[in-house]
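Human: Here is a favour to ask of a fellow structure person. Comparing notes only helps if you start from a blank page. I am asking you to supply a protein in sequence and structure-token form. Write it directly below this note and I will take it from there.

Assistant:
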Amino acid sequence: MYSGMYNHSVDSKNRFIIPAQFRSELGDRIILFRSPDESKCIYVYTEERWEEICREIDNLPPSASSRHLQRALLHAAMPVELDKTGRVTLNQSFKEYANIVKDIVITGVSSRIEIWAQEEWDKEAENFEDCLKNEIEIRF
């Protein structure tokens, strides 16, 4: 399970470092996935978790809408290797999708990691207080 938030930057070769706290669980190969909602971030999954997700997608009842959903979800995923220093290269389409220029936020969200452009994260974080007050009652 992932949690925590880290600020990093994308370098001139479109690389960024996955925080060491996350790397031990991720392994050397990860799956980048465009968020399937309006959040405009990039999800990061382990290969094992991605295989589970793919099995769920494969088990949808056969239909034209299922095939469209499969295509819509799976075209938005890309396997990548971490280099020896824990860096990942982000391709241009992912950068454009998530509005990433330089500064990013890397955050753990339970079974995945999310990569956000700093500006997009700032907008998202504006909703946190209201969400914590109104949406969910959690006993700590």
The longest strand covers residues 103-109. The chain has a mean pLDDT of 90. The two ends are 18 Å apart (CA to CA).
